[in-house]
Protein 1
Amino acid sequence: MKSLISLALCLGVLKGLWGQPDFPQLRQRMVREQLQSRDIVEGSVLRALRKVPRHLFVPEKYRAEAYSDTPLPIGEGQTISQPYMVAFMTQALRLKGSDKVLEIGTGSSYQAAVLAELVDSVYTIEIVEPLGEAAAKRLQALGYENIQVRIGDGYHGWPRQAPFDAIIVTAGAEALPQPLVDQLAEGGRMVIPVGPHQGVRDLVLLRKKRNGKLVRESLMPVRFVPFTREN
Ligand code: SAH
């Protein structure tokens, strides 16, 4: 019996050495070393990042790096954000389960999947068609049923589903898109990188108070791929 156990252990170790990396373990370590060690404290956000298999959202050749502290290319000149940035922006939205959330910039759909672990319904818009199509397929394959993907210019938001309790923009805009501000519910929160084209932008948290008044707060300097517009 003992030798059977050691054989099984040996095989396990060998598989670990020559097979694919131990993704679940790498993911737990990512949460500890990149999120908890910084300022991500919200239990539900940490749980979501412990759960969503980030390696399945990046191109195969980058899988081994999926849990490193960095953005990665996802094709079409776009990137999946650094895990910490995903967690930070998600935490800033102060979500509750019944919230309806709009994301602009689906990309790999990793951020959308993280949101879908936290709230009932997620709407996400991607301007680059092949990315949007791949994202919709991926989310379906992974069994996410509470995310709707649309291909188009997110500047206009999703008027038929508005208002939204939270809006997250994962591309850097030069200014706040007015339609998104209009589609934010009273009491709603929006996070968006804003600033001049190229270079460092300001990660802005915008809150719409019950009386409709807007409160703008600057969270940190960030770099994001640009928010583009349909011609
Ligand atoms: N949230 C993504 C990160 C994607 S990078 C993830 O988790 O992987 C930003 C994405 O925003 C890119 O895919 C880019 O094509 C998209 N984008 C840029 N401008 C846009 C716009 N006006 N409407 C919708 N998507 C846009």
Protein 2
Amino acid sequence: MTFSRILGTGGFLPEKVLTNSDLEQMVDTTDAWIRERTGIRQRHIARDGETCVDLAEAAARRALDAAGLTANDIDLIIVATTTPEQTFPSSACLLQHRLDIHGCPAFDIQAVCTGFIYALSVADKFIRTGSAQRVLVVGAETLSRIIDWTDRVTCVLFGDGAGAVVLGAADEPGIISSHLHADGAYRSLLQVPAGIGNGYTGSPYMEMKGNEVFRVAVTTLGRIVDETLEANGMERSDIDWLVPHQANMRIIQATARKLDLDMEQVVVTVEDHGNTSAASIPLAFDRAVRDGRIQRGQTVLMEAFGGGFTWGSVLLRY
Ligand code: COA
């Protein structure tokens, strides 16, 4: 049997940092409110003209370096993004061009904050079925472009960035299992209503019913954790690391409690990055791999929840 395992990781954040005190000058908010309700201190924001593909390219090159591979070794590119550089071609095709590789399949996945989990799961299936050997999986976002910077409810939460992994075929897992879900009935709680030809003429920015999203996120993430452990006959104590989607510190803490995990076993970047949607898990994973916390052979649970709603998890042995 063929499995997939992570060969290398990379991350990239735009240079510009927006702190909570910067936001105090822009909307009616305070550093104390933002920290207490979300845990966020600062977020990175793409400069004018810096696109999701710019961020994706930088993260991808770092992941390729870490894997000891070159772009020509890649035979599939998947980019998870909700903020693509263009409507089409896909950001994956634009990234392929930047990397100067030709012919391999390349496509985007749109599952908002669960996008990286979806992309990793799809890449794993390509490798398990022998359709690909080495896959570049990227989560890249410029959320700042779909935020209303006069809306204090949303503008304090999000940031820009990209994270990437190179996934390769292996004799042993690697990725142990992945679990994907969606329910479009929740669309109105978290959305950008503008689209192509849908007749909508209102604000082009994100709308969110924050406390309803919060409530559903906490219970749904609790369920996905149970589902993942049960599917693999594992106990909570079998998990070495939780790498959650970084939406809100209180949501992360609730999932850690559900798993009986000490916060020392949870990779948290939300203070420094805010919610970078599809980029948040690969950015957090990359940070913990590079600083030596996550070691080869350890068991890692990744989980995410986002617009759609979409939610899912990936359990892996690093
Ligand atoms: N600064 C100061 N006050 C703010 C504020 C801000 N940035 N944003 C909202 N408020 C105010 C509200 O207007 C409200 O005031 P009111 O009581 O006078 O009406 C008050 O704070 C409480 O609002 P509420 O929405 O109940 O706060 P909350 O405790 O639910 O926290 C969120 C708000 C957005 C931080 C929280 O709901 C959350 O994190 N939700 C999940 C969002 C998320 O993660 N989305 C992405 C999922 S992938």
